[in-house]
Amino acid sequence: MLLEAEYLESLGVPPMSHDKLPDVVVYDEERKWLFLIEAVTSHGPVSPKRWIELEEAFKECKVGLVYVTAFPDRAEFRRNSANIAWETEVWIADNPDHMIHFNGDRFLGPHEKTDNQ
Which CATH number is 21-102 given? Predict the structure, then answer.
C-alpha cells in the first residue's frame, strides 16, 4: 500500500484511516480531478450510501471528485448493478477501454455541487 497523506492533505483531503479511504485514489493534475475508485470485490460498489459517505469525507477537497466502481468482469457488474449510485462511473477489467456512466450532468468528470449538497 502506498499512501501519500501529505499530498492528499494538500488537496484538501482530511486525514482518515485506511479503512475509510476508497481502494484506490488517483489524482489527475492536468484536469484537477481526484478519482475515488472502489474495487467491488473488496468493499462493494460505490452505492448511494457509500457515495454520501465519500461526499461527506471529501467535502473540503479543493478538486473535482470522480467516483468509480471497478469490476473484474460483466458477470460481477450484473450482480451489483442495482447497488451502484447515480453520478458515478463503472470500469470493467475484461473490457478496459470502455466505461459506463451512471447518469449525471456529464460523462467522466466530477459532478457540479449545488447549494443543496
Answer: 3.40.1350.80
